[in-house]
């Protein structure tokens, strides 16, 4: 599991480590890691052209020292200053290695260096930066050639808020971000994900000094493999978990089909469908193994396509009055938003899965701090909140937050969330508890990626890809064909 720490925690850890090592050790470690990544991207260093965008802080120093290492290997390195002041030691090292420094006043030379570069390093601002890029940095970033030029960010893309991932105005758009010591939340949540590209974490020795809890955690494939419920020789359909699905209506029978399909395709021991009429007929035609009618279950999924009438409200209330986990989605979220007291004080696990507009029905917009917003709602209601989006967030009532690293924009399609609810329902019934939505989001996002290998996707194609996604998690060395 990867962990992302807020700015205050990182700064505290850096200060504690710096007090125990020689001056300049942390910057030397960071710049060496940065240079290594640049070498890997360039392939042939000798004769390549590298432009460094340099601000006044330590990020600029990291970039300058890395540039000196590249210049020593024969690269033509030009440091383009975006402010009058820059790191003195870094400037001296770059010049000593044969690099060139372009003053902030020489705008035409700076632009030419950026436009001719094979690789551009963003050392403009660090984790303390706020707001979008200012001039001349914004203009220089905009002048980078589209295609053919590697873009590498130092620690965090400039213009991205380190704690929230907020992007206000112009920002550096990296192919690779080289982060030092610890991930920052802005690399894994919010719009910062789109700017960060591939994130390469360089160990500079911070781990023993990160004493406060991580703000955001990110599951890796091995974590999901350890948590995924795999049946044993003594299991049967009941011990594997029975999930009850209350979804669909005459107007939206497909929601019932997709939700039950997500539960089945992710390995439920049994799915009970709690509906009737056209929706029930559609479920029976699509999934003959689904059992129709009420009965004992280990978890409920309530809401996709259900409607918001009195009958639907009664279905939701009955589920919430049981002592088993309940996932609330779609129409059931609308009902709950008007009656939040239905879940306050509930002892069994309750999971809400809103998208941004559904979230707003609970009293406030998501805003730019998605992790913070999800955590606030989870704490207020005493529930687990899965906030859907390009980077799905799962927040627990104790403030624990996970960011989902899988997914694709192709998942923004009708019914995709119904499949996700079914997957999580299976995991709740299997006994994963609060980890169920975290693991479910990971596999759902991976299924979306696999489905998208063949082009645009539908929700049903995502459900169909779920077994392949699970197999990829459990057998990561196997090749997955499209």
Question: Which tags fit this structure?
Answer:
482 residues; alpha/beta; Rossmann fold; UDP-N-acetylmuramoyl-L-alanine:D-glutamate ligase
Structure write-up:
By secondary structure, the chain is of the alpha/beta class. The chain folds into 2 domains: 213 residues, YjeF N-terminal domain (Rossmann fold), CATH 3.40.50; 254 residues, Ribokinase (UDP-N-acetylmuramoyl-L-alanine:D-glutamate ligase, 3-Layer(aba) Sandwich). The protein has 18 helices and 18 strands. A 9-stranded mixed beta sheet has the order 12-11-10-13-14-15-16-17-18, with helices on both faces. The protein has a 7-stranded parallel beta sheet with strand order 4-3-2-5-6-7-8, with helices on both faces. Helix 2 packs across helix 3, helix 10 crosses helix 16 and helix 10 packs parallel to helix 18. The longest helix is centred in the first third of the chain and has 18 residues. The radius of gyration is 25 Å and the shape is elongated.
Helix content: 25-40%
Report Rg. Answer: 25 Å
Structural class, please? alpha/beta
Q: What is the strand arrangement across the widest sheet?
A: 12-11-10-13-14-15-16-17-18
SS field, number of helical segments: 18
CATH superfamily of the largest domain: Ribokinase
Assigned CATH architecture of the largest domain? 3-Layer(aba) Sandwich
Domains, number: 2
CATH top level class name of the largest domain: Alpha Beta
**Low-confidence spans:** none
CATH level 3 topology of the largest domain: UDP-N-acetylmuramoyl-L-alanine:D-glutamate ligase
Biggest β-sheet strands, sense, barrel: 9 strands, mixed
Q: Into which percentage range does the β-strand content fall?
A: 5-15%
């Amino acid at each position: 599991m990867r962990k992302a720490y807020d700015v205050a925690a990182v700064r505290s850890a850096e200060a504690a480590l710096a007090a125990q090592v020689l001056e300049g050790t942390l910057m030397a470690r960071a710049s060496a890691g940065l240079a290594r990544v640049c070498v890997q991207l360039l392939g042939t260093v000798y004769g390549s052209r590298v432009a460094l965008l340099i601000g006044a802080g330590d990020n600029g120093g990291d970039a300058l020292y890395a540039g000196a290492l590249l210049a020593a290997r024969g690269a033509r390195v030009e440091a383009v200053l975006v402010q009058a002041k820059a790191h003195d030691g870094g400037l001296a090292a770059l010049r000593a290695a044969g690099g060139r420094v372009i003053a902030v006043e020489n705008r035409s030379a700076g632009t030419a260096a950026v436009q001719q570069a094979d690789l551009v390093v963003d050392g403009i601002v660090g984790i303390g930066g706020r707001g979008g890029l200012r001039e001349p940095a914004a203009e220089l970033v905009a002048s980078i050639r589209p295609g053919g030029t590697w873009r590498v960010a130092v620690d965090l893309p400039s213009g991205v808020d380190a704690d929230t991932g907020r992007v206000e105005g112009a920002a550096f758009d990296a192919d690779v971000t080289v982060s030092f010591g610890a991930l920052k939340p802005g690399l894994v949540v919010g719009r910062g994900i789109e700017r960060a590209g591939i994130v390469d974490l360089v160990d500079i020795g911070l781990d023993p000094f990160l004493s406060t809890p991580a703000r955001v955690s990110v599951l890796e494939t091995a974590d999901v493999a350890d948590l995924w419920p795999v049946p044993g020789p003594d299991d049967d359909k009941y011990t594997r978990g029975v999930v009850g699905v209350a979804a669909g209506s005459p107007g939206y029978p497909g929601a019932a089909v997709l939700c039950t399909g997500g539960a089945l395709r992710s390995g439920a021991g049994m799915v009970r469908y709690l509906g009737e009429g056209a929706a029930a007929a559609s479920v029976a035609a699509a999934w003959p193994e689904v059992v129709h009618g009420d009965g004992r279950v280990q978890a409920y999924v309530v809401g996709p396509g259900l409607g918001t009438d009195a009958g639907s409200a009664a279905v939701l209330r009955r589920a919430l009055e049981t002592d088993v986990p309940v996932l609330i989605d779609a129409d059931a979220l609308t009902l709950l938003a008007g009656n939040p007291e239905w879940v306050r004080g509930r002892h069994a696990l309750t999971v809400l899965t809103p998208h941004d507009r559904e979230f707003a029905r609970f009293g406030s917009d998501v805003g730019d701090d998605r992790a913070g917003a999800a955590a606030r709602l989870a704490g207020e209601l005493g529930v687990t909140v899965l906030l859907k989006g390009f980077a799905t967030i799962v927040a627990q009532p104790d403030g624990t937050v996970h960011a989902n690293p899988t997914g694709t924009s192709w998942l923004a399609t009708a019914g995709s969330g119904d499949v996700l609810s079914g997957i999580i329902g299976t995991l709740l019934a299997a006994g994963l508890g609060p980890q169920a939505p975290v693991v479910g989001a990971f596999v759902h996002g991976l299924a979306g990626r696999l489905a998208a290998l063949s082009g645009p996707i539908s929700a049903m194609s995502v459900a169909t890809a779920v077994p392949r996604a699970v197999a990829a998690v459990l057998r990561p060395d196997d090749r997955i064909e499209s």
